[in-house]
## 1
Amino acid sequence: MEIEFRCNNVPSYSPVKNNEAVKRKTGINSYIKSAKDISCRKLFRKPQIDYDGTLLGCCFIHNKNFKVNVFKNGLLNALNSARFLYAKHILTDFSTPLRKDIPCYNCPDYEFIKKYNYKII
């Protein structure tokens, strides 16, 4: 089993009470977003699929999705859907305009990587 420790992205929800203990046991600072915590990487390495087969893309996009179902359309078809491919494109080429129909629209991780021209792959 693979275990992945993640930064606390929403400090108001289940706040970390002892940052030093978290850092000592996991090696991460729970208040600072590190490069490995950028959710956008999930689209390329570990695309997230909801319980009903809906392709979410990343774990940060829980209230939006790519309007394709892995169970109905198949995994390869879902990963090659127009919206999903466009999202991957905007994450690698920041000159590509972000569309409102892409779940990354208004995502703080996308805004972060674009602002700092951060390479995720």
## 2
Amino acid sequence: MLGSRSVRSRLVALCAIGALLPIAAACSGGSGGSVGPGSGGSAPAGAASSSATAVATRWWSNSAARSGTTIDPKNPQAAAGHLHASKADYCAMLNQTVAAGKSILPGVTANDPALLTSTKAFVAEIEAVAPPTVAGAWKELGSAVIALVGSGGDPAMVNGVDAAAVRQAASTVAADAKRSCRVDLSS
């Protein structure tokens, strides 16, 4: 049953990401429901209320983009090219993510393109502003988050993820966020 253990290991690692980052909470998403556990909170400004009309917008701000701006689905990583490592932007993005709650785009299912677009934009931008001490951890974690959301929230469909490396990266990011930004990503 090694295959089963491998899938279970990936599931644990990927759902740990979901607990760490509200954006990745798609691992419990389903058709017609909100993304993530505890959904039902108020939507951030600019978030669509229906998956049929969902448009990916930022719930975060940084020096290249402001909260509420629409994300180009054809190039969600565009703003990241205008960013550089910045503790102020990094901590602000983490604080805004936690403040946005578990329901980033209410009514969006795990298969909604708006969720994947906002995930790609967020990951690219957080990686760009991450301090050097956590930049490597974000690269590992970011690619796993995108893979999970791209799979429609099905961890069994995510390949090429090193579960131990993802757990370590998530631990590194969470510890640094608490220490450097006074943000508890696990809450």
## 3
Amino acid sequence: MKRSFLLLLLVLPACTQDQKRSFEISIRNETANPLSVGLVKNGPPTEEGWMAPHDVAIMAPQLSDRKWGLVITPGETKVMGPHVGNFAPGVQAILRIYAGTPTIEEMIAFPRNDPERLDIYLWPGKSAYVIRNVGGRLDYQRAEEAR
């Protein structure tokens, strides 16, 4: 019993360390409007390049009138990355997409279930998505499924 407890104490710190993950995402805009696209995380640590619009508004309110993310025009495909981040256990990368080109201040008014906001949870590595407007709501398919 003592050995098991001692082994657990030795292994536990290794289980709680941040992991470095890399993402490369291809996004094709098949909507009639531009899309604003960026990467966010649903937990710590806070890092540049992974901040959601509400985080930017809190940490740098003077930037609230600016645009956020990468703009992809209708019919265009862009690749983001490779983009590297540190992730605490249980934290996930999210590709966040907004219809149009709203400012940071306007984006924070979009609730999670807004039809003009889309969150796609990502796996590390390369991925590709086609973004469409289906029934008045942003939707996606993996690029290989859309063919």
## 4
Amino acid sequence: MSSQDPNDGFRDEPEGEGEIPNNDRREEALRRVKVPGTLLQLFGAVCIAWNVMTGALSLISPQSIINPYFDFIEDLQRNNPPDKQQKLPPRDEAIKSQQVQGPIGAVIFIIVGVVAFIGGSKMKSLSGYGWAMAGSIVTIFPGLCCCCFPLLPGIWSLVVLLNQDVKRSF
């Protein structure tokens, strides 16, 4: 016989004063994970949709991505003296590079979006702690988005997932 409780600290009835019953603890954990889990799902869905679009665009029409970028850089440098201007690679090389690098990057970020979406789903249902942690962590990596949007759901969900009551509810 093991001295460890088979219920792992969960009981249907409170043992003493201050103890929260198992069902109430689970309901509280579900309440805590609802919003950050939904934000993880939202980030995952947006990441998937955006990268499917940019990956397809990189294959079909890479010049539609490269030409506006080159035009923007050239407009910025128009007032600089020639010796201070940034040397850009030839447009044709950049377009060929975009045809290769664009879809590869898109596939990587689609995988990140899938992990974030699954992590948010598992977090909201309290069914997969590892997936929830993975989804939270991948949203924090720099470079996943051009802004700080993924930091909010990533850090928030990590804080919630590291809470002992939430951990026990998984």
